[in-house]
């Protein structure tokens, strides 16, 4: 069984062993694969593992040995799953491996806004506290989360974890979700989107990217939000219209935008958010803790092992 990893570096830059995967077949790991290199590298593969390398119907048609595609992420839009199904190719993903890490970064962003931790650390290095006439020094608003409204779009594993943490902070938690209100924990109120937009002090996006959710946050939805609101996106970049968000920030119609994802990655130099003082962007690192990547690797191994044994798990095109 020939196993080819097309772009292993992001998930494993060298601090995690591939030994478990090597035990399952003849393994070749590439750090990165350009589109022009795909067919040559995958030609003799029975099993392909990909993170961001796109595998479409045209590529599958030229890979007659291919029987399995494992996506090294939760989202699997890089694979044409319908074409894979027609060709009898199993496609799997890695669910729920980064729930705790993404929820953690969500609140790292929120806490950075409410207490400006990085700002004050930098100010102290410049001597601001040392020069203060008082025992205390601050020059930004300081915000307590308790009693504020946390709006969440999407209550999957990550959204539910964020809701639980918000509740522990004493926040009122509301969610726009397809889940039945009667089946939600008692501390989560179900709301429609207009209500969520207008009442949230913090609005956090955790829904999948679909044609219906693309640019869910746009000029119209931003106009419904409080100008003091904090918008957080650790889901997918295209959930927001980035130009509309940049305009709202510059016009002070939004307090802050915190994101770990952009519509085009890596960030393009002309992205309007890069020039916004109140846009706080991290480079797609929410999922990338060592612990989360260890879980990703183990689930990837388990997925391949289950496929080889004839009982595939985490199949997304069944």
**Major sheet summary line:** 7 strands, parallel
How many strand elements?
12
Question: What is the helical fraction, as a range of percent?
Answer: 25-40%
What number is the mean pLDDT?
97
Poorly predicted parts: none
Structural class by sheet pairing and helices: alpha/beta
Physical arrangement of strands within the biggest beta sheet:
8-7-6-9-10-11-12
Order of helices and strands: EHEHEHEHEHHEHEEHEHEHEEH
Dominant shape: globular
Strand content: 5-15%
What's the number of helices?
A: 11
Rounded to an integer, what's the Rg over CA atoms? 22 Å
Task: Give the termini separation.
Answer: 22 Å
Describe it for me?
The protein has 318 residues and is of the alpha/beta class. The protein has helices at 19-22, 38-42, 57-61, 81-86, 99-115, 117-125, 157-168, 193-199, 219-223, 242-250, 290-308; strands at residues 2-5, 26-29, 47-50, 68-71, 90-92, 149-153, 172-176, 188-190, 202-205, 230-233, 256-259, 279-281. The strands form 2 sheets. It has a 7-stranded parallel β-sheet with strand order 8-7-6-9-10-11-12, sandwiched between helices. The chain has a 5-stranded parallel β-sheet with strand order 2-1-3-4-5. The chain starts with a strand and ends in a 10-residue tail after the last helix.
């Amino acid at each position: 069984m020939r196993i080819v990893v097309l772009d292993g570096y992001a998930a494993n830059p060298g601090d995690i062993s591939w030994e478990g995967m090597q035990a399952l077949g003849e393994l070749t790991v590439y750090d990165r694969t350009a589109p022009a290199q795909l067919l040559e590298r995958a030609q003799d593969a029975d099993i392909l593992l990909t993170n961001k390398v796109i595998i479409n119907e045209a590529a599958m048609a030229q890979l007659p040995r291919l029987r399995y595609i494992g996506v090294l992420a939760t989202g699997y839009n890089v694979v044409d799953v319908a074409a894979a199904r027609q060709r009898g190719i199993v496609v799997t993903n890695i669910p729920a491996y980064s729930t705790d890490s993404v929820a953690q970064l969500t609140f790292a962003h929120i806490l950075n806004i409410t207490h400006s931790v990085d700002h004050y650390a930098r100010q102290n290095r410049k001597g601001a506290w040392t020069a203060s006439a008082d025992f205390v020094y601050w020059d930004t608003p300081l915000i307590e989360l308790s009693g504020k409204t946390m709006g969440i779009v999407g209550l999957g594993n990550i959204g539910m974890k964020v809701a639980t943490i918000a509740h522990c902070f004493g926040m009122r938690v509301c969610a726009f979700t397809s889940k039945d209100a009667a089946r939600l924990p008692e501390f989560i109120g179900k709301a429609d989107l207009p209500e969520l937009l207008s009442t949230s002090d913090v609005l956090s996006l955790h829904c999948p990217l679909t044609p219906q959710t693309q640019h869910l946050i746009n000029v119209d939805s931003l106009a419904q939000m409080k100008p003091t609101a904090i918008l957080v996106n650790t889901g997918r970049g295209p959930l927001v219209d980035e130009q509309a968000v940049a305009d709202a920030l510059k016009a002070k119609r939004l307090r802050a935008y915190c994101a770990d994802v952009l519509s085009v990655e890596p960030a393009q130099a002309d992205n309007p958010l890069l020039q916004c003082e109140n846009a706080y962007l991290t480079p797609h690192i929410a999922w990338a803790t060592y612990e989360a990547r260890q879980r990703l690797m183990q689930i990837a191994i388990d997925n391949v092992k289950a496929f080889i044994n004839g009982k595939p798990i985490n199949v997304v095109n069944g």
